[in-house]
Design brief:
The protein has about 80 residues and is α+β, with helices and mostly antiparallel strands. It has 3 helices and 4 strands. The protein has a single domain, classed as Histidine-containing Protein, Chain: A (2-Layer Sandwich). A 4-stranded antiparallel beta sheet has the order 1-4-2-3, covered by helices on one side. The longest helix is centred in the last third of the chain and has 15 residues.
């Protein structure tokens, strides 16, 4: 299992467009990918669940990866977050 924490830097947080692109990216991997903010954890493949986290600028989210392609998934999601959020 791999994981990383990320602090949202986008002024609008995880809003519709980047959330949709993030979910689309996550669905490319077979690993189970979860996103946690505070005490709430959601599956990375569920758009409405990701948006329901309410991750605004300055929020810390944690991504966890568990599966056969977890290394590649972790690397791709981290890159996406750094470039978009």
């Amino acid at each position: 299992m791999k994981s990383f924490k990320y602090v949202i830097t986008d002024n609008e947080g995880i809003h519709a467009r980047p959330a949709g692109n993030l979910v689309k990216l996550i669905k490319e991997f077979s690993s189970e990918i979860n996103i946690t903010k505070g005490d709430k954890t959601v599956k990375g493949t569920k758009l409405l669940a990701v948006m329901s986290l309410g991750a605004t600028k300055g929020s810390e989210v944690e991504f966890t990866f568990n599966g056969e392609d977890e290394d590649a998934a972790c690397e791709a999601v981290l890159k996406f977050m750094q470039e978009n959020l």
